[in-house]
Automatic annotation (TrEMBL):
This is Nitric oxide reductase NorQ protein. Coiled coil: none annotated. Belongs to the CbbQ/NirQ/NorQ/GpvN family. Keywords: ATP-binding, Nucleotide-binding. It holds the Pfam family CbbQ_C. Residues 192-275 form the CbbQ/NirQ/NorQ C-terminal domain. It comes from Arenibacter algicola. Residues 45-179 form the ATPase dynein-related AAA domain. The keyword Cell membrane does not apply.
Length: 277
């Protein structure tokens, strides 16, 4: 009982999604749902790999709903520690009480726990989840000196962006090999246009133009952009257009500007988009 912290919040953003509400819209892009359901049946952790904005988070929300499980999402960053996930002692009035972290809670109630961008988290997070990813299926609460068995419905899901991590934050093979891995990538033009229309009620003809722009920019590998146009950026552009912002301006602020700060590249991409929208 060595940690006394005078605040009840953790420095990790996490959300719990209950089962009420409509099932999130998700356009299947391959066999991901079938694989996930089988992995869940076998309680094998799943790693979702792929660039940002390609539907990984949406997919987890969708399958959690389909499987009728609560979903706890943790957005990992370089400060995310095992204490943030497992729990801590807090001071409440004159008392010191233990507060479960989101991982402990998920393990106890049998939720799906989604560690978004797991490679960003501190190494002790990876250590903490190891015993949950093998036959032991248990979690060690170091500050309490207790080990708890995971609820039979508990499932661990993590996401990882291989391109973005290049050169620095890699996931070790010993960690990766504890997961079944599903690759996510940009949808086919037809699927992506359908996603835009479904997400924003934009006209199909304009959605197709946005998808054309995205694919053109995705093919410009010589620009050396760290990340290229994601479906998320297109959804934002589509929303702005649908809400009445002029198309060229919407594409500039939602697609071009977020990609780069290089003025020359910004201008040439904006010119290209102006011709295509
Ligand atoms: P990631 O978790 O991979 O960064 P998200 O799941 O947050 O990406 O996806 C970003 C947005 O793109 C979603 O909010 C959704 O609007 C849209 N999107 C991407 N792929 C799909 C898909 N297959 N079906 C429905 N929406 C999608």
């Amino acid at each position: 009982m060595d940690t006394l912290i005078k605040k009840s919040s953790t420095n990790t953003e996490n959300t719990m999604t209950s089962l009420t509400g409509d099932i999130p819209f998700y356009k299947p892009l391959g066999k991901e749902e079938e694989v996930f359901k089988h992995a869940y049946g076998c309680r094998i952790p799943v790693l979702l790999k792929g660039p940002t904005g390609t539907g990984k988070t949406r997919f987890v929300g969708y399958v959690a709903h389909k499987l009728n499980r609560p979903l706890i999402t943790i957005s990992c960053h370089e400060e995310t520690s095992s204490t943030d996930l497992i729990g801590r002692f807090i001071i409440k009035g004159a008392e010191t009480i233990w507060m479960d972290g989101p991982l402990t809670k998920a393990v106890k109630i049998g939720a799906i726990l989604y560690l978004d961008e797991i490679a960003e988290a501190r190494p002790d997070v990876i250590v903490a989840i190891h015993s949950l990813t093998d036959h032991r299926k248990e979690l060690y609460l170091d500050k309490l000196g207790e080990t708890i068995k995971a609820h039979k419905d508990f499932m661990l899901v993590a996401s990882f962006n291989p391109g973005y991590q290049k050169g620095f934050k890699e996931l070790k093979p010993s960690t990766r090999q504890r997961f079944v891995a599903l690759s996510f990538n940009y949808p086919s033009p037809k699927d992506e246009a359908e996603i835009l229309v479904n997400e924003t009620q934009l006209e199909m003809s304009v959605a197709k133009k946005l998808v054309g722009i995205a694919n053109r920019i995705r093919n410009l590998t010589e620009l050396g952009l760290t990340e290229t146009v994601s479906t998320r950026l297109l959804v934002d552009a589509a929303k702005l257009i649908h809400s009445g912002l002029p198309k060229r301006l919407a594409v500039r602020v939602a697609v071009v500007e977020p990609l780069t700060d290089d003025l020359e590249i910004t201008e040439s991409l904006a010119d290209l988009c102006d011709l295509m929208i």
